[in-house]
Amino acid sequence: MAELTTKAERWWWEISFRGRTNMPILLIILLAFLIGTVGFWDALGALIGAVALIGLFWLILAAAVVVGIMWVLRRLR
């Protein structure tokens, strides 16, 4: 491994992969397989849909927590 000289290089090394490169290589291989199987635009649509699904899940979960807190506070009055 090359010597990390600046604070920014050390910071980037810590937040990125900490020297572990197996997972990004697997993701690149899976992405290449997906693109090769269904085509670029369908693969892009699938990835955008997956990200949107995760975002929607967290949005619904946050809304459920807010409604639950409001329900508990209303019951305590």
Write a compact overview of the structure shown.
Helix content is 82%, strand content 0%. The chain is built from three helices and no strands.
Can you give a write-up of this model?
This protein is mainly alpha-helical and 77 residues long. It has 2 domains: 1-38, no CATH class; 40-77. Helices cover 82% and strands 0% of the residues. The protein has helices spanning 7-15, 22-38, 40-76. Helix 2 (22-38) packs across helix 3 (40-76). The N and C termini lie far apart (62 Å).
List keywords for this structure.
flat, 0% strand, 77 residues, mainly alpha, 82% helix, 3 helices
Give the SSE layout:
Blueprint: H1 7-15, H2 22-38, H3 40-76
Helix pairs in contact: 2-3
Keywords: Membrane, Transmembrane, Transmembrane helix
Transmembrane segments: 21-41, 47-73
Strand content: under 5%
Topology as H/E string?
HHH
Question: Counting H and I runs of at least 4 residues, what is the number of helices?
Answer: 3
CA-to-CA gap between the ends? 62 Å
The percent of residues in helical segments reads over 70%
Average pLDDT score:
84
Shape assignment: flat
How many domain modules? 2
Radius of gyration: 21 Å
Pick out the low-confidence regions.
none
Structural class: mainly alpha
Number of strands: 0
Largest sheet: none
